[in-house]
Design a protein that fits this description.
The complex is a heterodimer of chains A (233) and B (179). Chain A has 7 helices and 7 strands. By secondary structure, chain A is α/β, with parallel strands linked by helices. Chain A has a 7-stranded parallel sheet with strand order 3-2-1-4-5-6-7, sandwiched between helices. The N and C termini of chain B lie far apart (53 Å). The mean pLDDT of chain B is 91. Classes of the chains: A alpha/beta (233), B alpha/beta (179). Chain B: InterPro entries: Glyco_trans_28_C, UDP-GlcNAc_transferase. Chain B: GO terms for molecular function: hexosyltransferase activity.
């Protein structure tokens, strides 16, 4: 083969490669936009069976608000229930376990069928240096991925702590890849009156949450796609 | 209880100060100051009980035998609900848990914001509830003025919230029938 043909062959190959890459990227983008569009609309079909639900717990006030919400959700619709809390947060899983055990006692179901409880590694502890944080964030992401592969919930409920970001991000990727469609519901804390928290802001701007609820009217004015629901507490 | 003890119990009006699990020395030292103690005694309060949390400032205890305020303190309690219930006035840090626990018990509340905290979104909640006249809102520097000027009769009771609107939205979104 003389040089002329050689050059045009590699030129065709690189054009082909570039075109394929552009094509794949465009496909992914279209798929992402489609997922975002579908997520913003209610499910088109009537729900006929219970939905597996992942509940992300955060420390203190976050857990109290989440338990308030769980109290008014019909337990036979949101089943089975999985709870995740940060590895260093002892109180939240205990409180959730209490709730589930008392529910089981009421219904006469065996305690082993009550919700499943898991801990997740935190991306970064308060005051941790930024260099070590890069590693711990990676570990947290891998751990979140592992948990999400196991659980693949249909519904995710979260209300603020940083632990929810890796999980919701992975849930979004699962939606795009067609692994599992999760409806993500985020309730902004009652303590947020004028500004969204960082978690809330990320989930709102990136359109990762299907529905984002706020408890004070000023937030709904500032963030028109948010849904004002009044105070939970 | 004898008649005299019952009478004393009846006249007992406790000011309960709480900082939750935080450290808030500026509030404790403000409450411990002489003019705050005087204004509370002048308003008819008999006891001042301070929950210190992780703070290091220790107030001066007092029996209150000379007609001044009786002062006592402790660091933590597994549940401050009982202390809140027996208080006539609550002065609290701006944590949402403390605030709503107190408002649910319909106790008069003065919230003091800790300006040393880095991200002070807590003040948003206290300011909003103060605007709606559910509590008084102060900083450690103007706590005395707030206490001196406050009229607890102007406070409005806080009606408890309701999580059912959220549940309704979630159910509708997922296609579950309305109850």
């Amino acid at each position: 083969m003389d040089k002329g043909n050689g050059c045009s062959f590699s030129a065709v190959t690189s054009t082909a490669i570039i075109s394929s890459v552009i094509f794949v990227i465009t496909l992914i983008l279209v798929r992402v936009l489609f997922v975002i569009y579908c997520s913003s609309r209610p499910m088109s079909r009537r729900a006929k069976k219970p939905v597996s639900t992942l509940i992300i717990l955060g420390s203190g006030g976050h857990t109290a608000e989440m338990l308030d919400l769980l109290a008014v959700l019909q337990k036979d619709r949101f089943y089975p229930r999985f709870y995740i809390a940060a590895a260093t947060d002892n109180m939240s899983l205990q409180k959730a376990e209490l709730l589930e055990n008392s529910l089981a006692a009421e219904n006469g179901t065996p305690i082993t069928n009550a919700g499943k409880f898991m801990k997740i590694y935190r991306s970064r502890e308060v005051g941790q240096s930024y260099i070590t944080s890069i590693w711990t964030t990676l570990v947290a992401m891998v751990h979140a991925l592992w948990l999400m592969i196991k659980i693949r919930p249909e519904v995710i409920l979260c209300n603020g702590p940083g632990t929810c970001i890796p999980i919701c991000a992975i849930a979004f990727v699962f939606k795009v890849l067609g692994i599992r469609w999760s409806s993500i519901f985020y309730v902004e804390s009652i303590a947020r009156v004028r500004r969204l928290s960082l978690s809330g802001l990320l989930l709102y701007k990136l359109r990762i949450a299907d529905q984002l609820f706020v408890q004070w009217p000023r937030l709904q004015q500032q963030y028109p796609r948010a849904i004002y629901v009044g105070r939970l507490m | 209880m004898g008649d005299r003890e019952e009478e004393e119990e009846g006249r007992r009006r406790v000011v309960f100060v709480t900082v939750g699990t935080t450290r808030f020395d500026a509030l404790v030292s403000a409450v411990d100051s002489e003019n705050v103690r005087k204004v509370l005694a002048a308003k008819g309060y008999t006891h001042l009980l301070i929950q210190l949390g992780r703070g290091s400032y220790l107030p001066t205890k007092s029996d209150g035998d000379d007609g001044s305020l009786a002062v006592d303190y402790f660091t933590f309690s597994s549940s401050i609900a009982d202390y809140l219930r027996s208080a006539s006035l609550v002065i609290s840090h701006a944590g949402s848990g403390s605030i709503f626990e107190t408002l649910r018990l319909c106790k008069p509340l003065v919230v003091v914001v800790n300006e040393d905290l880095m991200d002070n979104h807590q003040s948003e909640l206290a300011e909003e509830l103060a605007e709606r006249k559910h509590l008084y809102y102060a900083r450690p520097q103007n706590l005395y003025q707030t206490l001196a000027d406050m009229d607890l009769n102007t406070l409005l009771p806080y009606s408890p919230g309701d999580a059912t609107p959220v549940a309704k939205h979630i159910n509708r979104f997922l296609g579950f029938p309305d109850d």
